[in-house]
Specification:
Keywords: DNA-binding, Sigma factor, Transcription, Transcription regulation. The chain is built from eight helices and no strands. By secondary structure, it is mainly alpha-helical. It folds into two domains: 76 residues; 61 residues, Arc Repressor Mutant, subunit A, CATH 1.10.10. The protein is globular and about 50 Å long. The N and C termini lie far apart (78 Å).
């Protein structure tokens, strides 16, 4: 007896094909690492697959759902003490370049984001990259709007201190 394989839900494959790169980029920004970003994207896409019966509807918002799963997964992952890594004597071969290796600026941004505490990094990515409002970020993370404001302020201050941002001549007297 063979196992019966269910057909892909209608629209799921198209969604993944059209949004995969952006979803992985979002994950990489959340984690500060391209490979971990891919893992995070897979977690979100698996959750979307399981809920596609309601996400695939015309009023469904699959990308918002995937992003929320990714944010929650990233937040839970930073709380765990052991992440399941097992050291090996030989490193695996790197397969091609990720999106973060495409320019010096993206490498600098990713390195600066990696140095931020996870809670500040998540808030900054949601506010600046995903263009979420303070209220939306607060709702996603389950924190107060004031917490979102303070984390954003601290994260931007840390990025300025790292030299990533150059103050414009308009802002200086």
């Amino acid at each position: 007896m063979g196992l019966l394989r269910r057909a892909e839900p209608a629209g799921y494959e198209d969604f993944v094909a059209s949004r995969y790169r952006e979803i992985v980029r979002f994950g990489a920004l959340l984690t500060g690492d391209g490979r971990l970003g891919e893992d995070l994207a897979q977690e979100g896409l698996i959750a979307a697959y399981r809920s596609w019966h309601r996400l695939g509807a015309p009023d469904g918002r699959p990308e918002a759902y995937v992003r929320q799963v990714m944010v929650r997964t990233a937040t839970r992952a930073r709380r765990r003490r052991w992440h399941g890594e097992v050291p090996t004597e030989e490193l695996p071969d790197a397969s091609g370049r990720g999106f973060a290796d495409q320019s010096d600026l993206s490498v600098q941004v990713l390195a600066s984001l990696r140095r931020l505490p996870a809670d500040q990094r998540v808030v900054l990515v949601l506010r600046c990259w995903a263009d979420a409002s303070e209220a939306e970020v607060a709702q996603i993370l389950g924190v107060a709007v004031g917490t979102v404001k303070s984390r954003t302020s601290r994260a931007l201050a840390a990025l300025r201190a790292s030299g990533l941002f150059v103050e414009s001549s308009k802002e200086t007297p």
